[in-house]
Fold this protein.
Amino acid sequence: MPSKHYRFRPRYRGIALTSVGVGGTLATIALASLGGAFLPLATGAIGVVLGGGYLLSPSWSLEVVTDDDALEVRSPKKLKFRLPWSEVVKVVSSTSTDTCFVDGGAPERSLLVPGDGAPAPYDLADKAALCADILAHVPADKVETVERLTTKR
């Protein structure tokens, strides 16, 4: 089976765009009508820098790649980790929220596919297909299904 690619995406695009818009407006007003007053100008610039930095983060070039052998997380230049399906310790899955956690035995070899309500600063393209792909490759005895990941303690 050919490999499938799922790109990381910014989860809080709306907040970042609002930060850029409000910050840019505040900085423009500070320059145009307040004679470049320092506090509103600095505050506006900070909003633009923080929102723009989030949207331009190199994290959004990462992708999850699955094939018949393994799950990989990689950037265009570097492999972050490769987890063969046989080395998956456990998968906790919530099909109702398209969320799953793949435990690779260590935090640097684990992956959270964040669905509704999952605490992650990123999103993934086509989460439902990625979760289904993971569940199709991991043996059923290593999968635990819960209503929501937050109910798992």
About this structure: The radius of gyration is 20 Å.
